[in-house]
Write a structure and sequence with these properties.
The chain has 214 residues and is an alpha/beta fold. It has a 5-stranded parallel sheet, sandwiched between helices.
Length: 214
């Protein structure tokens, strides 16, 4: 069982928050908290060291905030999925983190079961975006030049892109299109390369913006 657990790193400058998150998660059979960090810089270092599957990351922290930590992890091509855990509801706080590569966000008063569900969801490849935040992300995107890149996508890649926009994981896409997960991963990589995008979140937003979503 332990080998199949989702490995989670907690990054927050408040010890009481980390303790609360750990308490929430330690009762989950399929989730293992592998470490903690008290700021973004330490979070990046611990992510590289411990190689968690999912990082729960605060936004406002000393030394290095969550947005800058996300950018560092992207530069390092770290595969960990980052779920923002924040007490701030303003879009100006959440949107930059999502643009920097976060897979989604939850609030610090989230129900324990919902938190565990969010961790499982982003680990499975889903993108957790509230409609109003997705709209804010789209409104900040530049409007020029992007649509033409979509002409390079094959019909199958367009199908995969539409399912990414629906929040489907690779496994779910494979099941829907009767493909292997390995083939789906190849399609996803090709989509990101052709559209010059960094991750699935950007791909989902691109699809919505250019009418490729289902």
């Amino acid at each position: 069982m332990a080998d199949n657990r989702i490995r989670v790193l907690l990054v927050d400058d408040h010890q009481v928050v980390r303790r609360g998150l750990r308490t929430f998660l330690e009762v989950q059979d399929d989730i293992e908290v592998v470490g903690e960090a008290s700021d973004g810089a330490e979070g990046v270092a611990r992510t590289e060291e411990l190689k968690p599957d999912v990082v729960l990351m605060d936004v406002k922290m000393p030394v290095m905030d969550g947005v800058e930590a996300l950018r560092k992890l992207r530069e390092l091509a770290n595969p960990a999925r980052v779920l923002i855990v924040t007490s701030f509801t303003e879009q100006r706080t959440v949107v930059p983190a999502l643009r920097a590569g976060a897979a989604g966000y939850v609030y610090k008063d989230v129900d324990p079961d919902a938190l565990a569900g969010a961790i499982r969801s982003v680990h499975a490849g889903h993108v957790l975006l509230q409609p109003e935040v997705a709209g804010a992300l789209l409104s900040q995107e530049e409007t020029g030049g992007g649509h033409g890149r979509g002409n390079s996508l094959t019909e199958r890649e367009r199908e995969v892109l539409g399912l990414i926009a629906d929040g489907r994981s690779n496994r779910e896409i494979a099941r829907a299109l009767v493909l292997s997960e390995k083939t789906v991963k190849t399609h996803v990589s090709n989509i990101l390369m052709k559209l010059d995008l960094a991750d699935r979140t950007q791909a989902a937003l691109w699809a919505v913006r250019h009418g490729a979503a289902g």
